[in-house]
Amino acid sequence: MAQKLSLADTDGNERVSISTSADSTLMTFYDDNQVSRVTLELINTEPVLKLMGEQGSAVLAIDYQGMPSFTLRGHGDEVIWSAP
Length: 84
Description:
The chain is an all-beta fold. The chain has one domain (3-83). It is built from no helices and 8 strands. The chain has strands spanning 3-8, 14-20, 24-30, 36-43, 46-52, 57-62, 68-73, 79-83. It has an 8-stranded antiparallel beta sheet with strand order 1-2-3-4-5-6-7-8, with no helix packed on it. The radius of gyration is 14 Å and the shape is flat. The chain starts with a strand and ends with a strand.
């Protein structure tokens, strides 16, 4: 069963949401325009941090063995740079 908790600012705009299911937990932070800018996802024991900007994103993930990977994506979600 999935659960979701949303927190709003004094104007009623969603600023933070936390959702959970049997195998993952997702926390999302929103900017002033309610655009998702930061997500932290935990799938089983593998955390993923994603930072999103207007022209791209950066993703830091750690696999179940503790090995990190980092990926920079540009506009259109193309990979600019990646390291295991």
